[in-house]
Every structure is written in C-alpha cells, then in structure tokens.
Amino acid sequence: MKNYPLLDVRVTTPTLELRAATDDLLDELAELVRAGKTHAEPAPYDDPMSFYEPDPDLRVAKWLRAIWRQRGSVAPEAWRLYFVVVVDGRPVGEQTLSGVSFSTLGTVTTFSWLSVDMRGRGLGHEMRAAILHLAFEGLGAKEASSDAFVDNQGSNAISRGLGYEINGSDWATRQGAPALLNRWRLSRQGWERRRRDDIDLHDVEACHALLPLR
Questions:
Q1: What CATH number is associated with residue 134?
Q2: Model pLDDT for residues 47-60, shown as the tens digit of each residue
Q3: DSSP summary character for residue 89
C-alpha cells in the first residue's frame, strides 16, 4: 500500500513470513477465525476476547473491528503492529507487537495465535523469534514482555526457550472466571545471547518514519 508503508513491513525466517496485516490478508485469515481454529484447551485468552464469541460471523466482525481500531491508533503511550503469519503462501495465524511508552521505556509486548492444524511444528517459537528480531534489531527495543496462563504450556515453553525470565504472576479473568497468569520478561542482553542470523527484516524504515520510537 503505497500511501501507508507500515503495511509493507515484513519479517522472514527460513520457515515462515510475518506480513503486515493488510485488509486482503485479514480477509483470508478471517476464514480461520470463522472456523474456530483460534481455539485451544485450556483457553489461552483473557477477557474481553472476540474469539469467545459463539456466532462465527459476529466473531469475525468483532475481531476485525478490534484490529482496525488499534491498527489506526498510533501514539507515544501505545501503538500496535499487526502481522499475518504466512507459511508456504498460506495465512495460518496472527502475530502482534505493541509498544508501551516505547519512546521513553523502550518496552514491547507480544500476542499471537496459530491455527489449530499448524500447531506442534515449532511455528509458535519461530513466530515469536521473528517478532522479537523486529523489536530488538529493527526498532531498538530494550525489553520485551509476555504473559500466559499458567496452564498454557505451549506459550510458557516458548518464552522459556527464547530466554525470557519469569517476572512474577498476576490474576486475570478467562471467560468470566479467575485464572493465574505467568509474567515473562526478556532483556536486550538476554535476546542478544540467542540472536539469530537467519531472520531478515524488510521495509522497516517505515516504522522509524511513522511510529513514535524516540
């Protein structure tokens, strides 16, 4: 999209690609949301979450509205980049990167989901490694955080494997019921110890031009 170059930003690894979430890509990914392929047991999302909506069409509408609202909101205190995870040319999931008072603190958080039929192949780890490369190498982040319910074994294992350190716990609601979260923290030094040389960034200059990074 020539008039909004943030939608041209990409991250590539040997096994997948993160493409900025254009409406065309979201339209393809929406079929997985409609089919309920975002779900997992135990439920991984805290409230409120559009994926808990039982009506498939309304679920897609709520999901898209949330992305459109947050994709268009860019401020020093908060911004969020949305990416579609593409494997062999096919959208299979979503990966986001949020800056939290980034110009002052240099901190980011991440969120992701992967289609149920693509899990168990190491793609979750690869998605997170790719977005961390964008954050630390591309944007100069100082720290990344993540959280996951204590029974979300996959997400907790990814954080542990990428060098995050446990950073306490907290409570959230999940479909109206209380559930305990693990908080994770990855410093720049921790990322540097595991940084890879096979992840490539594309058109990242748009982030420096259009995001409040400094």
A1: 3.40.630.30
A2: 999 999 999 999 99
A3: T
